């Protein structure tokens, strides 16, 4: 009987270690997080830790893999839905990511404050690379469908997913920096307008890369951006 539950116990302890490491990354930053911090949090021995992870680097790889898997699951049904057009899939792809962020808004705001610090530079690059490798092929699949449907006319369909994702990541980084700038200044209106403009510019660029009809992709509006401004700032400048 003990043998049948042992794999479950092992999986549970591994999740606990990953949960703790992820929490420490978000509070201290990866560069300042040590294996000892994890051991102290969980009250486990070094031997117990190394039963699951050979090193701090191995722990980072596992964290990256977990984030990659969690973000991929909700996207796959959209990409493989036979009833959706390519443009509907692309819209659904972006909308799903937006919904996930909104659903975890409080955690996203906490992450935003530490994600772009030097202490998380390594983990940020690791996650960005992993997400890029995961999502680019999914976007390419959508692009190839769009070419078959005669709604996309890109001359580089096999590279389009990578180009789109590079634009999306660039847009996300710019949005994050604009939001974080509100912690040093109180010009909310200008920040909101800048984010709306940046989003429109990047969506326009993606449409041009695809050869898609103008304005076929969603543009963020002022009210949607204000939700994030409110979550980040609270009543700091009320």
UniProtKB/TrEMBL annotation:
Gene Ontology molecular-function annotations: DNA binding
Domain HTH tetR-type stretches: 11-71
Protein name: HTH tetR-type domain-containing protein
Ranges in a coiled coil: none
Keywords: DNA-binding, Transcription, Transcription regulation
Alphabetized PROSITE patterns for the sequence: HTH_TETR_2 (PS50977)
Xref: InterPro entries: Homeodomain-like_sf (IPR009057), HTH_TetR (IPR001647), TetR/AcrR_C (IPR049149)
């Amino acid at each position: 009987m003990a043998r049948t539950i042992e794999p479950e116990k092992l999986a549970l302890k591994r999740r606990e270690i990953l949960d703790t490491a992820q929490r420490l990354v978000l509070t201290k930053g990866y560069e300042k997080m040590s294996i000892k911090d994890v051991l102290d949090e969980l009250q486990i021995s070094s031997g117990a830790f190394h039963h699951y992870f050979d090193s701090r680097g191995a722990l980072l790889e596992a964290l990256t893999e977990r984030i990659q898997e969690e973000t991929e699951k909700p996207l796959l049904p959209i990409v493989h839905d036979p009833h959706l057009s390519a443009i509907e899939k692309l819209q659904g792809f972006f909308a799903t990511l937006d919904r996930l962020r909104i659903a975890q808004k409080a955690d996203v705001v906490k992450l935003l404050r530490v994600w772009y610090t030097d202490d998380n530079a390594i983990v940020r690059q690791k996650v960005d690379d992993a997400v890029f490798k995961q999502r680019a092929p999914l976007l390419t699949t959508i692009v190839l469908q769009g070419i078959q449907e005669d709604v996309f006319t890109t001359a580089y369909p096999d590279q389009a997913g990578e180009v789109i994702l590079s634009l999306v990541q660039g847009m996300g980084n710019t949005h994050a920096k604009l939001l974080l700038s509100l912690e040093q200044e109180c010009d909310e209106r200008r920040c909101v307008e800048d984010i709306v403009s940046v989003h429109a510019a990047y969506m326009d660029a993606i449409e041009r890369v695809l050869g898609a009809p103008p304005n076929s992709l969603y543009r963020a509006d002022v009210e949607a951006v204000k939700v994030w401004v409110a979550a980040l700032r609270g009543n700091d400048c009320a």
